[in-house]
Amino acid sequence: ETHKYSQCANTAGTTFLTHLGTLCVEDCKPDGGEYKCKTIDKDGRSQNMYCSPQENMDYWGRQCRADSMCGKYGEDYCWCRINIFSWGYCGLVKADKKLIDSGEGTHITSRHRNRRDPEVIDTEDDQGNHIKTIFTAVAAPRDITDGTRYRNEAENLIGRWTNVHLGNQARSKLITSEHLRIDLQGHINRNNQRYYNLQIQVDNRTIAQIIIPDEIPERYVRRAFLESFNRRARVFIDVSKY
Fold it and tell me: Which of 33, 64, 75, 97 has minimal Cβ neighbours within 10 Å of its Cβ?
């Protein structure tokens, strides 16, 4: 769905604004992986709040989707969608001594985007068949719940996985245990291929999520689930031939 952009603030001459629309009194800087700046809140107190390092990036330095520029969208804070799975807080940014015209959505290009890049977990190289399989993880602590209390149950559930459960339609409860279930949430077009969006759920919370293509070994699927559960990250498996 394409959002109609709503401006968080409109103060001429500003440099950075926080996700709540207050003026940063210093540059937006990285702070433990997040971007923050010092600002004065409405009660006159000095605080560190989320900001964006560049126009239409979130507070982690990730690029907002083209159809979801940084805006309020009915909330009390600014945010944008990063992809179909996640969103992030963001703040408006001045470009070339002019406050960004939110309606135009000017794009800033830089070699220093400071995006949150996926982490390569492992690479499997099948030289005999000339196939390379890459496991990558994208941290998602806001979307993937800490499932530590279900660790033993989750490991047993994952151990029961077979690829017979993959199908053409989204379906819940592919495999179940006392508290957990594996759902096929649907399919994603990635690299011009069909990928499966598989999640382990407890009630309506996700404790692991993997995005996988067709025809990969079951042991890779189980490995991806375990990595996602342990890291609270989305794990992608990509296969290429050489």
Answer: 97
Residue range 57-66, pLDDT digits in tens: 999 999 998 8
Q: Where are the beta strands (DSSP E) in the chain?
A: 29-31, 34-40, 46-50, 79-81, 87-89, 94-95, 98-99, 119-126, 131-139, 171-176, 180-190, 193-202, 205-213, 233-241
Find the radius of gyration of the CA atoms of the chain. Answer: 21
Closest CA to 6 of 88, 97, 80: 80
Which residues are within 8 A (CB) of 165 and not within 5 positions of it... i.e. 6 or more apart?
Answer: 174, 175, 182, 184
What are the φ and ψ backbone dihedral angles of 36, each rounded to 5 degrees?
-140, 160
Q: Is the pTM of this model over 0.70?
A: no
